[in-house]
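Entry for the shared binder. Reason: the reviewer on the internal report wants the predicted structure included alongside the sequence.
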Amino acid sequence: MDLSSCHVHSTQASKAACFTRELAALPKLATLMICPKDAPRGCGVRGTALRQLLAGLWRLKALQQLQVSSAALDSLPARLCAAGSPLKVLRLEDNELSSLPPALGRLGALEELHVRGNRLEALPDAIGRLGNLR
């Protein structure tokens, strides 16, 4: 599912909550692109609305690929990193991330983590628990 053309900004948090509820009703959703890598900066869901949407994605029990690139994302909600998540690919390129949550280590199925173009100075020690990471 591609949400990159849905423009939801910080002041529209209720719209993000609605998206989260609607996405939770898609139990077989395996791929979600909130802001594709090649999209222009400023696309898609942004600010507080984006953080709210991401925090609710733990409910998607079949989600294997998540792409949130070029979205000015400054933090990744730890709640997104639910233990037992089937998430295999996490693309967070070209955002404003300065750190990643230690909870990232709970994503045991994760095979690909793309974080190029962020403000990261270090990775959490928990990343060492990701045995499937390539």
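Summary line for the report: The helical segments are 13-24, 47-55.
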